[in-house]
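Retro notes - structure team

What went well: the batch runner handled both jobs without manual restarts.
What didn't: labels got mixed up in the shared folder, which is why I'm recording both outputs here explicitly, each with its sequence directly above its tokens.

Job 1
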Amino acid sequence: MQRYIAILHESRKSFGVSFPDFPGCIATGATAEDAIENAREALAFHVQGMRLDGQKIPKPSLLKHLQSRADWADFADGMIALVPLLPHKTQNIRTNVMLDRRLLSVVDQRAQAKGLSRSAYISRALEAQLSE
């Protein structure tokens, strides 16, 4: 799985993410975690659009190559993160899985605390695990 360097910037009220390899591909979030999660989706959507337009998808740049670019100063004050290029989300499919009752209880508590459904929480957890 390809991973691209993302730059996380903090402002007074939110976080923003930009990709040096993909000018114009940005994401935001109320927290750093939200911004990175949104960056995964933004990157997938951006690359899907490039493919539909017949554009070449760049290989992930090495940090040392990015640091030698003339525009590196625009990114230098941010935090560096690696964001995986996951397939763009398509359609949800209903599935049936067996889970330990205690595990499911913890999932439900955490999902409720984040304002998510059980399915959304499990889906995000799986995406995060597959991103590693």
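Job 2
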Amino acid sequence: MSFDNSKLGLPYFSLEAAAVDKSPSEMVITDQTGENYYIVTRDVFEDGLQQNGYKVVVNEGE
């Protein structure tokens, strides 16, 4: 199953900015390049992003 990347919204180009903007129930992930960061919920991450090579860089609660 392919994930619809349009659900991600605009990327952050700074990990620090994404980490500050996320809520405690959200996580920050990065794409395969490691240059773009996105704020998502665990459900969204597990619903296709994880299988498409995205990686968690800031967990919930951090």
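One thing worth noting from job 2: The mean pLDDT is 91.
We'll revisit the folder naming next retro.
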